[in-house]
Amino acid sequence: MNLDTKWLEDFLMLADMQHFSRAAEARHITQPAFGRHIRALEKAVGHTLIDRTTTPISLTAAGRQFRTIAQNLVSQMEAGVKMLNGIEQPLQNPIRIATPHSLSSPTLLDLTEFINQEHNLHFSIDILRVDFAVEALTEASCDFLLGFEILSLLQPPFQNLCIGHGDFLLVSAADERGGALYNPLEMKCPILKYSAESYSARLIEQYQPQFESLNTYPVFESSMCQLHKDMALRGKGLAWLPDAQIRRELDTGKLIAVSPQQFRLPYQIRLYRNSAPLRQDAQQLWNYLQHSVKTGWQINRSWQPN
After folding, report:
1. How far does the signal peptide extend, from start to end residue (predicted)?
2. What are phi and psi for residue 215, nearest 5 degrees?
């Protein structure tokens, strides 16, 4: 296969800009020449990469997979040339991970620390809403997505590893005696709600029939678990929070799980990737986690009261 690196750079520019003339202008070549480069690239790889019937133009399924390959090839080549020229690179081509706020701390921090016990890898982290994170993985803007169960990613062309599990717990700040400040089994209580488009709201909605008698009234709404955690710690109301995010507060008694055997919504933590070949360090990470999971390692396990 004969590939001109300029074709790869042209393709990546077109994937970003979704417009032939603007991409050609950004690459400082004429549109006819730019179009020839893209057609030559498609002929070389044996697949149509660009869907020219949409407005703006978009990538085909093969194009989305090839975008990851092209990014890795161009990045590795640029890093190699810079190394040959002796240009210092404090952070060379980091592994890109997208994740929602609810798993950014401490889960993702714990994950990167666990990986770097054995491998000296560099990471670039994007904290995104789940739908934006899925888009980033689909469009090859990241190498991995750390998330909960995402149905659209549990099928080809994606792969995933289940690296942990836990529960969303109904929690309250502690009262002066160390018990729950709010208990819906005993009184009508304020509750912090999730925005309708958030993953947490959809998870809670699945189990809503079990909690129809929950004696609460909404006082605050946000899509971010961290805000709910902060508001709960301030005594503003009950909150559904993932145990991975509040384990320390539960163990120290700053947050109290209300009837945890009854109010417990299970979740899984998964690391997702595209099926397209990964560059060497990203594949090294994937292989290491695959082996660790097979030997029983998990980044999180369901919290249980002492």
Report:
1. none
2. -90, 75
pLDDT tens for each residue of 114-148:
999 999 899 999 888 888 899 889 888 899 999 99
Cα 192 to Cα 185: distance, rounded to the nearest angstrom: 17
Chain centroid to CA 224: 14
CA angle at 174 for the pair 214 and 267, rounded to the nearest 5° = 55
Q: In the 8-state DSSP scheme, what is residue 107?
A: I
Phi then psi for residue 241, to 5 deg, are -135, 145
Its pTM surpasses 0.70: yes
Examine the domain organization and report whether 161 and 272 are in the same domain.
yes
CA 130 to chain centre: 7
Same domain, 181 and 160: no
Contact 189, 238 (CB under 8 A): yes
Q: By residue range, what is the domain housing residue 175? A: 166-267
Alpha helix locations (H) across 124-198?
130-138
The residue to which tokens 């803007």 are assigned: 141
DSSP lists the bridge partners of residue 125 as 97
Judge contact between 237 and 189, C-beta under 8 A: yes
The CA-based angle 190-194-199, given to 5 degrees, is 145
Question: Are 273 and 153 in a shared domain?
Answer: yes
**Phi, psi for 154 (deg, rounded to 5):** -90, 20
